[in-house]
Specification:
The complex is a heterodimer of chains A (249) and B (314). Chain A has 249 residues and is α/β, with parallel strands linked by helices. Chain A has one domain (59-80, 94-246): Rossmann fold (3-Layer(aba) Sandwich), CATH 3.40.50.300. Chain A has helices spanning 28-33, 71-78, 111-121, 126-140, 155-168, 185-200, 212-218, 236-247, and strands spanning 9-22, 43-56, 60-65, 86-91, 95-98, 173-177, 204-208, 221-226, 229-234. The longest helix of chain A is centred in the last third of the chain and has 16 residues, at 185-200. In chain B, β2 (265-267) and β3 form a beta hairpin. Chain B has a two-stranded antiparallel ribbon with strand order 2-3. Chain B is mainly α and 314 residues long. Chain B is elongated, with a radius of gyration of 23 Å. The chains are: A alpha/beta (249), B mainly alpha (314). At the A-B interface, β1, β4 and α3 of A face α1, β1, α3 and α6 of B. The complex binds adenosine-5'-triphosphate (ATP) and magnesium ion.
Chain lengths: 249, 314
């Protein structure tokens, strides 16, 4: 339901390719022993190949594909966390990312300190964070543990706090990589509601998920990746079929 | 009436597109852009410095006191063993002030480099999850090293006052110059080594060993006069010794804070001549600072080149 007819483009991905070089040796000794041969010693492969698409403001995109098809890599490229070897990514607006497990938390600091650290990274000033702090804690429902070091958190508590922060920094674009799966049922429910609220507010959401149900329920558009290539880009229902098909290859 | 979604869409339509980082400008322009980016994240830098200080002593009962105990124990060791047992104090007036000022400045330099070098790898958790100018991590290490340095400075100044040695003279201007040089070179190495350490983890161990050796390449526990005497026949050796910017900074620091070093002293039956400070010290300091800035620029450029792959290599 992209609410607007002529919504502006917020993300433009042009011909992006990402190659990983896997060096098997990392220590000095191994490097010296393998010196000269080391060119041959590395494997490289393309995690993304000539990926292009545009995203209009207010769309919710489901990014699906088999394990290892490049979904997380694509999100990291979108977030500017890794750079593509080829192609460009352009985007505008504030971006918040929930990438795989364990947002950018520091294990030795308390939940409270991590909230401030994370909000600062996402571009909030201290004063703004003070304002949002209580509602972040309320949303995450971990008030009791907010002054505990996050290394003692359960993975669900971790995600609760990370999600609560990400949705309170007023992002225009939200990247979510599978993190919701570890929340318990009521919390997942709450996140879904929040995402729907976000949709109504015209925010752009890019969601990586292995749950076909979730994707069908939330997404306006589905992009299917297979071995780093975009093999389908279109409506949600057809996307799920294309995904099933891509498993056969 | 416009809905929230329409308002947002309208605002977004006005914003310019930001291209991903590797399309940015190169060389000087790139350096300036990086400095601006870091400056705009100064609030975050402040937070990271606090975090570093806090997390370091988080689970210890004595907390910050530990940052003082280490240099004081070092002082004790050098004072007792080198000063008294080996007799260095007989040739160096106010040996305690001399050694502690050397240790304080060296502590700043070695802490910037050692903790800076591992800073990218230890912050892997953040680097893999969010984008921010990554130079911020070696800079945060530098910030926490400066904090420890300031605490030691307070102890040093208090000791100087207690011993009635307060050095009120123009020589005091050498102190900030020395600190600035140590900061420039320390940050340059920290930035460079932190990036290299991602690709070759041995760097951080190599750095530890190198710092142990370099400690003895600067006049910290032995005096400059000793070096001058040893190299009497070959004055070019002294020039080589002074090429090390930290040795030069060390001398400037001592010249500013260790008043007794610039005077004739009598210890027991010995008359000790003042230190033969190198000629043209201010010119040398200026050169060391400029050379340091050039190295810092190169280090940042290499860092910028390497940082694109940090998140996938850690
Ligand atoms: N830092 C890295 N170094 C080398 N190879 C990597 C790196 N990160 C990812 N890869 C490789 O890139 C490919 C794509 O990985 P990616 O994490 O994007 O998959 P994914 O689609 O998110 O899979 P999943 O559904 O399991 O999360 C994988 O084959 C993976 O091994
Ligand atoms: Mg993944």
């Amino acid at each position: 339901m992209p609410a607007l007819r002529n919504a502006p483009t917020v993300v433009r991905v042009t011909d992006v390719s990402k190659r990983f070089v896997i060096r098997k040796e990392k220590s000095l000794k191994e490097r010296i022993v393998n010196f000269g041969r080391s060119q041959k010693h590395k494997d490289d492969f393309w995690a993304l190949r000539n990926v292009s698409f545009e995203i209009k403001a207010g769309t919710t995109i489901g990014l699906v594909g088999a394990n290892g098809s490049g979904k997380s890599t694509l999100l990291k490229v979108l977030g500017g966390i890794i750079q593509p070897n080829d192609g460009t990514v352009e985007r505008r607006g504030r971006l918040a990312a929930l990438l795989e497990l364990g947002a950018g938390f520091h294990p030795d600091l308390t939940g409270r300190e991590n909230v401030y650290l994370n909000s600062a990274i996402l571009g909030l000033t201290r004063k703004q964070t003070d304002e949002y702090f209580q509602s972040i804690v309320d949303f995450s429902e971990i008030e009791e543990f907010i002054d505990t070091q996050v290394k003692f958190y359960s993975s669900g508590m971790y995600v609760r706090l990370a999600f609560a922060i990400a949705v309170h920094v007023d992002p225009d674009i939200l990247l979510v990589d599978e993190v919701l799966a570890v929340g318990d049922e009521p919390f997942q429910e709450k996140c879904m509601n929040k995402i729907k609220e976000f949709q109504a507010e015209g925010r752009t959401i890019i969601l990586v998920s292995h749950s076909a149900g979730q994707v069908e329920e939330l997404c306006d558009r589905v992009v299917v990746l297979s071995h780093g290539n975009v093999v389908f880009d279109g409506g949600a229902a057809d996307g799920i079929l294309a995904l099933r098909e891509s498993f056969e290859h | 009436m416009a809905t929230q979604a329409e308002v947002r869409a309208e605002r977004l339509a006005q914003l310019p597109f930001e291209a991903s980082a590797n399309a940015g400008p190169k060389s000087v322009g790139g350096f300036i852009a990086s400095v601006q980016e870091i400056f705009s994240h100064r609030e975050l830098l402040d937070l990271l410095i606090r975090r570093e200080l806090k997390s370091r002593y988080k689970d210890s009962t004595l907390g910050f006191v530990w940052s003082l105990i280490k240099p004081l124990v070092q002082l004790l060791i050098y004072y007792v063993f080198i000063g008294t047992v080996l007799g260095a104090a007989r040739g160096v007036p106010q040996f305690a002030i001399f050694v502690f000022s050397g240790l304080t400045l060296w502590g700043l330099y070695s802490e910037i480099i050692a903790s800076g070098t591992s800073s990218i790898v230890t912050n892997a958790g953040l680097i893999k999850k969010v984008y921010l100018p990554r130079e911020i991590f070696p800079l945060a290490s530098t910030g926490s090293a400066i904090f420890n340095f300031l605490i030691q400075m307070i102890v040093l100044l208090a000791a100087i006052l207690l011993l009635g040695q307060f050095p009120i003279s123009l020589n005091l201007l050498y102190v900030p110059a020395a600190v600035v040089i140590v900061l420039i070179w320390g940050v340059a190495f920290a930035v460079l080594l932190s990036a290299l350490n991602v690709y070759l983890r041995d760097i951080q161990y190599l750095v530890e060993v190198a710092m142990l050796l370099l400690f003895w390449a600067s006049p910290i526990v032995y005096s400059w006069n000793l070096v001058v005497d040893a190299a009497k026949a070959h004055s070019w050796l002294l020039e080589i010794y002074l090429l090390n910017p930290v040795s030069l900074a060390m001398l400037a620091f001592q010249r500013g804070l260790w008043q007794a070093g610039s005077q004739v002293n009598v210890i027991g039956t010995n008359t000790i001549q003042p230190q033969q400070w190198p000629a043209y010290m201010d010119v040398r300091l200026a050169f060391a600072a400029i050379a340091g800035l050039v190295v810092l620029f190169i280090a940042q450029r290499i860092f910028a080149r390497l940082q694109g792959n940090f998140a996938q290599e850690i």
